[in-house]
Amino acid sequence: MYKSHWNLTERPFENWSNEQFYYPSEVHQTALLKLRYGVENRRSAAVLCGESGMGKTILLDSFARQLSDDFGPVAQVVFPSLPGEQLLSYIADQWTGSTGDDNESMRGALGRIQTFLKDNVAAGKHAVLIVDEAHLLSDSQQLETLRLLLNINAGAEGSESAWTLILVGHPTLISTIERNRALDGRVSVKCVLQRLSMEQTAGYIQHRLAAVGGEIDKIFSLAALEAIQLRSSGIPRRINRLCDLGLMVAYAEDQPQVDAHHIEGVYNELVSIPA
């Protein structure tokens, strides 16, 4: 609706993963390089933590795109709280691209995984498993299932692992893993996404605007940027929401620039909405 007013080719602040909108902030690039180090050196496990809205999904998408053909397939588990047998069957399905029997036993699922990993290593490849929302793994048995799965080395040589587990979740995930010493001992890389600074927030907004033909100085006043940093606390998802609505309100008022009062008005409306 407001694209033509601001001379933009697309809406720049949508909350979904899109390669052109990935902003390589220092904190995100550091985490991405750590994850690449863990996988490309064939380590057993890595952890990526951050508050909701910190950009974990878009970072992981960028990470997966950067891996060479020697690393894969990259499978993702989005239901980590499944019981042990179902979790293993789900992982086997994701990696192999086929579905096991409805009543598949844990042994059957492990057999499928072991065969897949052996063939994958023989083909010169290294598999990756991303477990999203891993902070929901409150059941110690689920964590133990993943730890035991790491013991399947299936043809990998020396200290190298046949695959890498990447656990992704809220910051509480770190302490959950540390309570499981056996699993913690397999984790080579731990990444925590910190909130963006004022400078990083401005860079983030500029990057997204530039991707769709916009210029930050022409669209947002300095006071507006300061208000966005204050009200978003440097969390990208909140930045997106404030910027998107700020653009809409300023457009509706036929203003040439988004100012601080637009951001404050949007913020006050958002926080007044009952949870």
From TrEMBL:
Residues 42-197 form the AAA+ ATPase domain. Pfam families: AAA_22. InterPro entries: AAA+_ATPase, AAA_22, ExeA_AAA_ATPase_DNA-bind, P-loop_NTPase. Coiled coil: none annotated. GO terms for molecular function: ATP hydrolysis activity. This is AAA+ ATPase domain-containing protein. It comes from Rosistilla carotiformis. The lineage of its organism: Bacteria, Pseudomonadati, Planctomycetota, Planctomycetia, Pirellulales.
